[in-house]
Design brief:
Elements: E1 29-36, H1 41-56, E2 65-70, H2 76-86, H3 92-103, E3 105-109, H4 115-132, E4 138-145, H5 152-162, E5 170-178, H6 185-196, E6 204-207, H7 214-217, H8 219-224, H9 227-230, E7 238-246, H10 255-258, H11 262-280, H12 289-301, E8 311-317, E9 342-347, E10 359-364, E11 371-378, E12 395-401, E13 405-413, E14 421-429, H13 430-433, H14 442-452, H15 461-479, E15 486-489, H16 497-504
Parallel strand pairs: 1-2, 1-4, 2-3, 4-5, 5-6, 7-10, 8-15
Antiparallel strand pairs: 7-11, 8-9, 9-10, 11-12, 12-13, 13-14
Helix pairs in contact: 1-14, 6-15, 11-12, 11-15, 12-15
Amino acid sequence: MAHPTPAPIIPPAGPVPMPPASPVLATDEYVTVVVLGASGDLAKKKTYPALFALFKHEFLPPTAQIVGYARSHLEINDFHARLRNFIKTKTADEAKQLTAFLANCHYRSGQYDQVEDFQQLDAYLTDLEARYARPPQSRNRIYYFALPPTVFVPVANNLRDHVYPRGDHAGWARVIVEKPFGHDLESSRALGRALAAKWNEHELYRIDHYLGKEMVKNLISLRFANVFFASVWHRHAIHNVQITFKEPFGTEGRGGYFDEFGIVRDVMQNHLLQILTLVAMERPVSLTADDVRNEKVKVLRSMSALDLKDMVLGQYTASPDGAKPGYLDDKTVPAGSRTPTYAAAVFHINNDRWEGVPFILRCGKALNEAKAEIRIQFRDVPGAGMFPSPLSRNELVIRVQPNESVYLKLMNKEPGLSFRQHIRELDLSYQTRYEGVRIPDAYEALLVDVLRGDQANFVRDDELDAAWAIFTPVLHQIDAGAVVPEPYTYGSRGPAAMTAFMEQLGVARDRQEYHWQGKPTATVAAPAPQPAQQPQSKM
């Protein structure tokens, strides 16, 4: 989006004016955000809290109006009360800000397949624009689909036909679509064709919230803004890449919904595969959306379809003490279900940079910890026998959540008179290095991208197609019950078969005991007391 060249700075005679409230929209733009499915869990737990955070931190213009639309008949006071239950405030100032935010939140009830209801919604939006947009501001609209995928197409069609910006000051329209984007390659293509019949690709924002996480968005900077990483980011230096997602809880009564998808569709085919493309892609020509996504698509097209022999599938059972039930103990799960709650798979990228490097994706529920990370394991040091201590491989670890961090594991000589080597790390832990700096929620970051019109962190149609092509064959086999997932106990590290799987791929465990604490592990001794007349050293 082009911005006018700033005028020369002239010392003001009076008070210095405040900058514009919104750093993401030009002053000649007005926006209305329409949240479809506003009474559902996604909207209450994610969409509206993210919008409030943007409002509170002045990334959402104070004049922007937010209109919720759903089938539930709710009075506006009841709707606001529901939102207050999910938007937490800590101070009196935040409570005032929430009150101001809710004054901009409206609600309309209607069906998703009735033309008349969408025509009434359009009339309501037009009235808001007449009240809040200041000519000659363009009147823009964002449509957020916090909806089940079964109604994506009728809602998209009705919005385009009856709620699209029109008139002298009509601006842009942008549609945010939540996953799942289909169930397999065929259904994804069918959905894509239906959306493309009414909407242009530049108007569609397929949201994968993992692309909005701080450390995922940081990958391009780490890779291409640092010469030392660029020089070792290839098969000659890297042995394997591991991308891991672990949850310490099970389906907790929502197994019926989860059973329709399974862990492969729910996490691996989208979140983890998106991270893989960012780790593996070539340097884009620029940071514009199409240049970044072009490189991601090239990675996907260099990968063969996944085979069951390259996977480990598991399903959790009750915890040893019986306190946590197993997946099949969930009454909402079909009896005898073979849906995996754990999946690991190895992928190979058939290009010059990555030939022979295994990319291992792992994800699961009811595991021993909560963690999402990228672990890049480098090759063994040649001639390591010259050292008196066993050498572990160097690893670059990018912790996505919790405790956002980047740390490099390396071998270092123990301090003192010995020549023994031990594992230590160069640690960039955000909680210590950026103490007091607020890291925005992924949904906040992506909503800002939508306001800016930046699609780099959203999934393009050909990217989605290539991703489904990789997974669809094995998904059909899993759906047909071709694999019995290996049981693993609630709270464990996963199926026992993972040990042999990782060894077969040549993944090496540390040859010395090591545990990253998420903060500096060394304690610096306090300086010895100094005579009063001598100043203490600042070194």
